[in-house]
């Protein structure tokens, strides 16, 4: 059974200046993080990891060495961190990929898009329209 909270009594007892002071202190700090990410753990090693990667060490080789000292990270996540750090970001950012379109160059030098007709099914009437064929009247 829950008890009723009497906010009138709480308001009468509360020291609002102390609460204001505490909230002001909190506003000057960063909020606590419940969980560290791979970027947070690898950030102190950022410059060293970038230097080794530029020297020719692969992300898989670096991951093997990191795992040996107790830092479990995947090669893909390390690549994300390295890519984010080299793009002048402060963390591992997502890269946006440009998609390729299925285009072929025709004989006149222009790009023409191609569509595959093999995947389309024809209706029973053979008119190229998919779907049910209704009886004609």
Characterize the structure shown.
- This protein has 137 residues and is mainly α.
- The chain has a domain at 37-93.
- It contains 6 helices and 2 strands; from the N terminus they run H-H-H-H-H-H-E-E.
- It has a two-stranded antiparallel ribbon.
- Helix 5 (59-68) packs across helix 6 (75-86).
- It is flat.
- It starts with 6 loop residues before the first helix and ends in a 24-residue tail after the last strand.
Entry keywords:
137 residues; mainly alpha; two-stranded antiparallel sheet; 6 helices; 2 strands
Write the layout of secondary structure elements.
Elements: H1 7-13, H2 16-27, H3 38-42, H4 46-55, H5 59-68, H6 75-86, E1 103-105, E2 111-113
Antiparallel strand pairs: 1-2
Q: What's the oligomerization state?
A: single chain
Total strands: the figure is: 2
Order of helices and strands: HHHHHHEE
> Given the C-alpha coordinates, what overall shape results?
flat
Helical content band: 40-55%
The main β sheet shows up as: 2 strands, antiparallel
Report the average pLDDT across residues: 79
Give a nutshell description of this structure.
The chain has six helices and two strands. With 137 residues, the protein is mostly helical.
